[in-house]
Amino acid sequence: xxxxxxxxxxxxxxxxxxxxxxxxxxxxxxxxxxxxxxxxxxxxxxxxxxxxxxxxxxxxxxxxxxxxxxxxxxxxxxxxxxxxxxxxxxxxxxxxxxxxxxxxxxxxxxxxxxxxxxxx
Length: 120
Description:
Shape: globular
CATH architecture: Roll
Number of domains: 1
Number of helices: 2
């Protein structure tokens, strides 16, 4: 299956404790553009967490329950996109698609990614 920019997907993330490493299924946002030719089937993602934060910082984006953008996201509860947590994974490890963010939201995410990556 091909995943597209703006898709919210489930991917196994490593979860490290002091005694072991395991993987947990976590949501992530596809930020790579797959309309262009690519050498490999890798997908660039940013992590998503449902951990409550007191303040959303400049490298994060909040998707809140009850908003018009929340339902199509497929997320279970209010979540924070962590644009400083960027990873590249093989497409094959993505287990499924949850939902999608609008172009309007992705435009806002692009601005946050530029800040996070130090791009002007």
